[in-house]
Amino acid sequence: MSLNEFIELKERVVIGEEFSFNYKNDEYWISQNPDRYYLTRVKDSFTQEFNTSEVLFENGTIEGRLLSEIYMDIDW
Predict the structure, then answer these.
(1) Domain extent at residue 62
(2) 59: left (phi > 0), else alpha (psi -120 to 50), else beta?
(3) Among candidates 63, 57, 29, which has minimal Cα distance to 43?
(4) Would you write out the chain's pLDDT as a tens digit for each of its 76 residues?
(5) In the chain, helix, strand, coil percent, each to 5?
(6) Run of H or E including 72
(7) Which of these, 51, 44, 17, 15, lies nearest to 31 by C-alpha position?
(8) Among candidates 58, 52, 17, which has minimal Cα distance to 29?
């Protein structure tokens, strides 16, 4: 994923879209309900919960690394 695609992903999550993507052969979901945003690893349903999409993208991690540090290795 390019930086522009990562920015687009963040913008689209803000307006309510949900996404699945792959990172190192594992599938992940970014989803939401009216009160929370979630980053979930599909294989074991490990889920991180956030109050806003901004906090998800600031603090969400995969394998101990922030999404902003690994976006270039994400396939969507």
Answers:
(1) 3-75
(2) alpha
(3) 29
(4) 999 999 999 999 999 999 999 999 999 999 999 999 999 999 999 999 999 999 999 999 999 999 999 999 999 8
(5) 35, 35, 30
(6) none
(7) 17
(8) 17
DSSP H helical segments within 1-76, as ranges? 3-14, 53-59, 67-70
Domain count along the chain? 1
Q: Identify the residue whose tokens are 């999550």.
A: 13
pTM, to two decimals: 0.92
> What tokens does 48 get?
């991180």
